[in-house]
Write a structure and sequence with these properties.
The complex is a heterodimer.
Chain A: E1 4-13, E2 16-25, E3 28-35, E4 41-47, H1 50-65
Antiparallel strand pairs in A: 1-2, 2-3, 3-4
Chain B: E1 10-11, H1 13-19, E2 25-31, H2 35-39, E3 46-49, H3 50-53, H4 65-74, E4 82-86, H5 88-103, E5 109-112, H6 115-121, H7 152-161, E6 165-168, H8 172-176, E7 199-200, H9 216-224, E8 234-237, H10 242-254, E9 260-263, H11 266-270
Parallel strand pairs in B: 1-5, 2-3, 2-4, 4-5, 6-7, 6-8, 8-9
Helix pairs in contact in B: 5-10
The chains are: A alpha+beta, B alpha/beta.
Amino acid sequence: MKPQNYTERKLDIDGWQVNLTTFQLGDKWHAKADNVSPGASLARVVADSREDAETRVLARAKELLSRTRRNAV
Amino acid sequence: MGTYAHPEVLVSTDWVAAHAKDPNVRVVEVDVDTKAYDEGHVPGAIAWAWNTQLCDTVVRDILPKAQFEALMAHSGIGRDTAVILYGDNNNWFAAWAFWQMKIYGHKDVRIMDGGRKKWLAEGRELDTKPVSAAAGSAYQASAPDYSIRALLPQVQQAHKSGGTVLIDVRSPQEFTGEILAPPGLPETCQRGGHIPGAHSVPWGKACNDDGSFKSLEDLQKLYGAEGVNQSTPVIAYCRIGERSSHTWFVLKYLLGVKNVVNYDGSWTEWGNLVGAPVEKGAARSAVQA
């Protein structure tokens, strides 16, 4: 199978930049959320639709990002 | 465009598409775990997980020699196999595996330029079934070559004596001390900041948007601005040593820096040491350093 409809988008979640990658493989949609800097994968979701995959992966990313504390420098 | 110092360590996605199933080639997807691999991988590729297969899981260390040899044998890799590594996050963990394979003396190991990201974006074939390598005969690794690895005493000495460029490859917010770990990941150090005098060159600056490595000229400009040339002693570090193995790869094999080492203890070691000097705030410019 070949991946189709590959897209990347940069989004802001509570002040953190997130890179959302989505593609279709067969009848499934794959979504991944990375923190833009440094680029670590936060969450991956496979779902039946693009919307479902992206909604769920962003919810998980938001949950993880909410645990990150900013310290005064 | 100029040619990298060691272009033989890179292969293109086109090359992998044509040679992934050659008898003397073993393609390996390397990531923090195998979730990405399970979703779909280069046909014929096997998977290595950083968290269970590329570290000593008891002592904090690289794989002991015997475990490394067992992994190679189990993966069907012999001393003469051409090992092609690729992975997510612009080849972070592939670079970690590359570094470790060089410590144990494997000659022909290469990285697929652009990694998983480029393969997906190009719409190339993916296989969703796991591949089991036919276990090969016993693999005899070389004695570990620690000349490409920095342990804490070497970093402390370099910090005291000067003359070595310390490159912190983490994000700017980790470098300044604003955050203790990459956004969304667990905090694993007690103090934020960086080793005093370190230069901030986030690892991702070495990559293009498609995940491939930047041109020789762009890399020379990027690291040259921080005082790095082919004869400069360099220590690269990050949080746990995998992002810095990416920068180590770039400096050693693409730019040809002769004396560059990866400090895999990195910030989770230095930032937890009692009494270790820590600097907070933005990087000094190359002129000031």
